[in-house]
Write a structure and sequence with these properties.
CATH architecture of the domain at 35-267: 3-Layer(aba) Sandwich
Strand order of the largest sheet: 3-4-2-5-6-1-7
Oligomer: single chain
CATH superfamily of the domain at 35-267: P-loop containing nucleotide triphosphate hydrolases
Strand content: 5-15%
Number of helices: 27
Shape: extended
Number of strands: 16
Distance between the termini: 103 Å
Structural class: alpha/beta
Helix content: 40-55%
């Protein structure tokens, strides 16, 4: 709570106090604190003795604090829903509650109001630690609960936190110990309980499990059991869900202590089916549609509902992404969004916020958006892929027709799913009306998807993943009476996604093989009977014609043709051409393979590629090394040699005949000892560097003089060739005129000549030998490097 303004100081006209020993009056702050304590105790007694009146309708009639009432009024929550009217008087008394209500009926306030009130009456403070824990199955639902908590709890002094996956774990860890109310998803909460030092829930007062059935369905049963083992048993537990399943009942027996069951059983007269959580304002329809026509029907629906807010459910993340990417490139004329579990947390939150605030949009989503999320003003809920059970159907359609608004729902079923799904819904008391799509509004988009897959390999890859994920979801469904994998047209479904062929899937091949194995052999026996009758007829015909041998031979050939062909030797090219779905041209390769069967005579083989099936039966192939080339054999031999003893290495011998490696490091200690320690090593290094630099200077001078000499030689040859071409027959003999130019271009081509004209230059005699006493005549005070430079210059001058 915000701190109050400081009070003014004592007035000058007030007489001073006579004595400090007398009793002083109570300070205003203490009197206020005492009255606050009295109000909390009175509120506690009022809540325990509260008997709800028959006309209970508003939050103001409940025994709750003024801070909660002000927060509810500020958030425009005035009247209560039916689930709130039934559950709040019970939960405010501190009892455990097992609540079941239809979607959109206000279950969130049914547990947030008790959370605030229980902690307020317990005088919970910042130093008391975690007092309330709210567990949600999905991140979006946790964010929604946290936002509602902030809107109604602004006048309380509690600290609240949100712990979900996808956020920075370190930042959560630093603030976790200061939280009084925590909204979390199961996985991240258990991670903090196991890893975060100082995070304890020993003083927990109230535990809330929202959408408990979904928490269990998502595979969090073990996680939830581990979480409950960390929590104290002396706590209040509130468990809410739109559907009550056997697993929820088992969880209630484990975690709730003598709970009060709160449920809505509406009569059929108000439009709702007894015993279900379907709102009465919801219109439910279903239609049968072939699997390869679903996307076309969906596209036609979107094009005819551009001014509506539509939520489309698909069975997997891959399908959501494929449909979203392809439909975005086809520009339907309405904003498209997508929401699934593979998105990053920031992207999920952005998509959730956009669809919440949009007036007209289409959201493609998985079942991550099926539980608890409050999307305002959703007009249609489309279930392109059938839900896994009736409970999932209830939660999906619950995203529309929330509270008192209206909504429509459409379920698309393939013919093999119709009977089983309708029976499952009827078992829950749900009746769905059948409708038919207007074929005039349905536009086939198969060609457009094929073009997109041909132009963009990423779209083709997404289509392959979507196909595999849908088939896997059907394969993994437990209810085989509804989801029948063998009856789905896999090839046509792949073509409807724009793919040239169905990707090979192991479980699909096994399913088809199993179906073929369990198939009746009546067809095979009928074919054998037909062949036998045909052979008998030909035998009888041969007896009449008197040509028995030829007919008998023909029947043997037909019998051989009827037998399955033996598997021959398959090359890598056979496997390459048999692969499908590698790229969009695989169908073209299949045509190339089948080209030779239609025209055996080869008359119409113009620009047609045919593959010859070479007979390898008569060839003698080695038994094991048939497919191993000589190059691979050499590589294998080299690898074996390296593994056994390694490759050879070069060894050199010194003057004493001792062997050494080519590059062998001398021992540092012995070498330093020979050089006279560190100082000697330093001096030797400087001396070596000085000598190398002198060599480089001499080499530089020699290279420059050599370049100049070559340049002069080239110029002399050029002038001689020019004189010879000019007809100067009586001129001097050209030396080297018949030699070709070597093409050498000197890097020092811009250096000026040292003296005179190059035309008067003659061939220089060979340089004299170097005198042995050259260094002896060196001047005192000069270094060896300077002597070397001077010697090089002398040699050059002698060479000239």
């Amino acid at each position: 709570m915000a701190a109050g303004m400081p009070t003014a100081g004592p007035s000058r006209l007030r007489p001073p106090k006579k004595s400090k020993k007398g009793p002083l009056p109570l300070k205003p702050g203490k009197a206020k604190k005492l009255s606050e304590k009295q109000r909390k105790e009175a509120l506690q007694r009022e809540a325990l003795d509260y008997v709800p009146p028959e006309d209970l309708k508003t939050f103001a009639q409940l025994p709750i604090s003024d801070a909660t009432k002000r927060g509810l009024k500020k958030a425009f929550f005035v009247d209560m829903t039916e689930i709130q009217t039934q559950s709040l008087p019970v939960s405010l008394k501190g009892k455990d509650v097992l609540g079941a209500a239809r979607t959109g009926s206000g279950k969130t306030l049914s547990f947030l109001v008790p959370v605030l009130e229980i902690l307020y009456r317990q005088k919970w403070g910042a130093t008391d630690g975690l007092g309330a824990l709210i567990i949600s199955p999905t991140r979006e639902l946790a964010i929604q609960i946290f936002e509602v908590l902030r809107s109604i709890g602004g006048y309380h002094s509690f600290s609240a936190g949100l712990v979900i996956g996808g956020k920075n774990l370190k930042d959560e860890r630093d603030r976790l110990a200061k939280m009084n109310i925590l909204v979390a998803t199961p996985g991240r909460l258990l991670q903090h309980m196991d890893q975060t030092v100082g995070f304890e829930a020993d003083n927990l007062q109230i535990l809330v499990l929202d959408e408990a059935d979904r928490i269990l369905d998502m595979g969090f049963s073990r996680t939830l059991s581990a979480l409950l083992s960390h929590l104290p048993k002396s706590r209040q537990t509130l468990l809410f869900s739109a559907t009550q399943t056997g697993s929820v009942s088992d969880l209630a027996r484990l975690s709730l202590n003598d709970p009060v069951h709160i449920g809505i059983q509406e009569a059929g007269g108000d439009g709702a089916t007894p015993g279900t959580a379907i709102p009465p304002t919801l219109e439910q329809h279903y239609m049968t549609c072939a699997l390869d026509q679903k996307l076309s029907v969906l596209w036609g629906f979107i094009k005819t509902h551009l001014q509506s807010k539509v939520l489309v459910f698909l069975s997997s993340c891959k399908q959501v992404r494929f449909v979203f990417e392809t439909f975005c490139r086809m520009h339907p004329g309405v904003p498209l969004l997508h929401l699934h579990g593979k998105l990053k947390q920031t992207a999920r939150l952005a998509m959730y916020t956009k669809f919440t605030t949009a007036k007209h949009a289409v959201l493609f989503a998985t079942d991550v958006a099926a539980r608890g999320l409050d999307f305002p003003a959703v007009d249609w809920v489309l279930q392109v892929d059938a839900p896994e059970d009736a409970d999932t159907y209830v939660h999906r359609v619950g995203r529309t027709a929330r509270y008192q608004s209206k909504g429509k729902a459409l379920l698309m079923l393939v013919p093999s799913e119709e009977e089983g799904m309708l029976a499952a819904l009827a078992g829950k008391g749900i009746t769905v009306e059948k409708i038919k799509a207007k074929m005039s509004k349905v536009q086939s988009i198969e060609t457009q998807l094929q073009n997109l897959a041909f132009q963009d390999p990423e779209i083709k890859y997404l289509g392959q993943r979507a196909f595999v994920s849908y088939m896997r979801s059907i394969h993994l469904h437990k209810d085989k009476a509804i989801f029948k994998l063998a009856e789905l047209p896999a090839e046509r479904f792949a073509e409807s996604l724009g793919l040239p062929g169905a990707p090979k899937i192991k479980f699909l091949s096994k399913e088809l093989a199993k179906q073929k194995k369990n198939k009746s052999r009546a067809v095979e026996e009928a074919q054998a009977q037909v062949l036998k009758e045909k052979a008998d007829a030909e035998d009888s015909g041969s007896e009449d014609s008197g040509d028995d041998g030829e007919v008998h031979e023909s029947s043997e050939e037909e019998a051989e043709d009827a037998k399955p062909a033996k598997a021959g030797v398959r090359t890598k090219y056979d496997r390459m051409f048999e692969r499908k779905n590698q790229n969009v041209l695989s169908a073209h390769y299949a045509k190339l393979l089948d080209a030779g069967d239609d025209d055996p005579d080869g008359e119409d083989d113009f620009i047609t590629l045919k593959r010859a099936d070479h007979d390898l039966a008569g060839m003698d192939l080695p038994d094991e090394a048939a497919d191993v080339s000589k190059r691979k054999q050499r590589m294998g031999k080299a690898k074996r040699t390296m593994l056994e003893g390694g490759l050879g290495h070069k060894i050199i011998f010194d003057e004493e005949g001792n062997p050494h490696e080519l590059y062998e490091m001398e021992e540092a200690g012995r070498w330093m000892e020979q050089k006279g320690g560190l100082r000697g090593v330093t001096q030797a290094g400087l001396k070596f560097a000085e000598g190398e630099m002198g060599k480089m200077r001499v080499a530089n001078v020699l290279d420059k003089e050599e370049a100049k000499e070559k340049k002069r030689e080239k110029k002399r040859k050029r002038k001689e060739r020019e004189k010879a071409a000019g007809g100067d027959v009586g001129g001097p003999m050209v030396v080297g005129a018949d030699e070709e130019d070597d093409g050498y271009v000197s890097p020092e081509f811009d250096l000026p000549s040292d003296s005179g004209s190059d035309d008067e230059e003659t061939l220089a005699p060979p340089p004299a030998k170097r005198s042995k006493t050259a260094h002896a005549s060196s001047k005192p005070g000069r270094t060896a490097v300077e002597d070397d430079e001077e010697l090089a210059l002398q040699l050059l001058r002698q060479g000239r």
